[in-house]
Design goal:
Elements: E1 6-7, E2 11-14, E3 27-31, E4 33-34, E5 37-39, H1 47-56, E6 64-66, H2 72-75, H3 78-84, E7 89-91, H4 98-101, H5 104-114, H6 116-121, E8 143-147, E9 156-160, E10 163-167, E11 172-176, E12 179-183, H7 192-203, E13 209-212, E14 217-218, H8 221-245, H9 250-261, H10 273-296
Parallel strand pairs: 5-6, 6-7, 10-13
Antiparallel strand pairs: 1-4, 2-3, 3-5, 8-9, 9-10, 11-12, 13-14
Helix pairs in contact: 1-3, 7-8, 8-9, 8-10, 9-10
Length: about 300
């Protein structure tokens, strides 16, 4: 049976981290009503804040948790969240669920990739298998769930009614005085064609508001997805040129050239120093993804 969705417009709850520059970088999206849904619960370190904010809004029951992917800044707080909301059912990428049931490898990989930042996010605890339901069993009127790998090998985007929750499949989006900042989140191992294919899946949908995990809303999914698609090709072209130049500092050189030539990064100059440091960290990781992909072609 397909349930009818009777809910309000989504709103965000900020999940500040104890990492300088991360205070306004992670959020959960909430749809309150019948049913009530939380999209990406965030890391373990901020799950108490999420629970407290829900309680302050008198949300005492959550029906579903939708996980766009299982990186620990999106799913690390799932186990303690479900202690507080034990009847909530979780929808996550099917092939990623085993890593939430036994998160040993997920935590080890997070430590290897993020280092001290993973420790600041907090460890991830196991979640019982019966907490999960399949995408097929997630039956809501007007809902479609798209597989959108790229940022992560197993990634979902949730589209229903007038809302598209894209996780990180459409980039990292920030707004400064009405101006757009958009950055590819393309860590190793990165597959360019797969990522573009996911963007094309979302472009095949009707235009609607798009909700980014990091960290805002854009009113036109068609407009921002087209810009993101162009940006992916721009990064590919510029990083290819740097590799061909024989530079021995590819990542550092790429950061400087992209900040100079990518108009969607122009708002970088309006960020505070700590936010710039955060973005340089993630840009380096994204460039490394492109470099690995491009070298695999030769």
């Amino acid at each position: 049976m397909t349930a009818k969705l009777i809910s309000s417009s989504p709103f965000s709850l900020e999940l500040p981290q104890k990492i300088p520059g991360w205070e306004q970088f992670i959020q959960a999206w909430v749809i309150q009503g019948n049913p009530t849904i939380v999209v990406d619960v965030g890391p373990r370190a901020s799950v108490d804040s999420l629970i407290n904010q829900l309680n302050e809004k008198e949300i005492n029951k959550v029906d579903y948790v939708w996980l766009t992917h299982i990186h620990i800044d999106h799913a690390g707080g799932l186990a303690p969240f479900l202690v507080e909301f034990p009847t909530a059912k979780v929808v996550a990428p099917a092939r990623a669920i085993p890593h939430l049931i036994d998160p040993t490898r997920l935590w080890e990989g997070s430590l290897a990739t993020l280092g001290e930042k993973a420790i600041a996010y907090g460890p991830i605890d196991p979640v019982a298998k019966d907490c999960f339901i399949s995408q097929e069993d997630m039956a809501l009127e007007g809902l479609s769930i798209l597989e959108t790998p790229g940022h992560a090998p197993f990634h979902l985007s949730f589209c229903y009614q007038d809302f598209l929750f894209c996780g990180e499949s459409a980039g990292v989006f920030l707004s400064f005085g009405g101006k757009k900042y958009l950055r590819p989140p393309t860590p190793p191992r990165f597959f360019f064609e797969q990522t573009v294919g996911s963007v094309d899946k979302m472009l095949a949908l009707e235009d609607r508001a798009i909700y980014f995990s990091h960290t805002g809303i854009y009113p036109s999914s068609q407009e921002i997805l087209k810009l993101y698609r162009e940006q992916l090709f721009r990064w590919k072209e510029l990083i290819t040129e740097i590799l061909r130049s024989g530079s021995n500092k590819v990542v550092e050189r790429a950061i400087e050239i992209l900040l100079e030539k990518d108009p969607l990064l122009a708002c970088f100059q309006q960020m505070d120093i700590l936010s710039q440091q955060r973005e340089r960290f993630f840009m380096a990781n994204s460039i490394a993804g492109f470099v690995g992909y491009l070298k695999s072609l030769s």
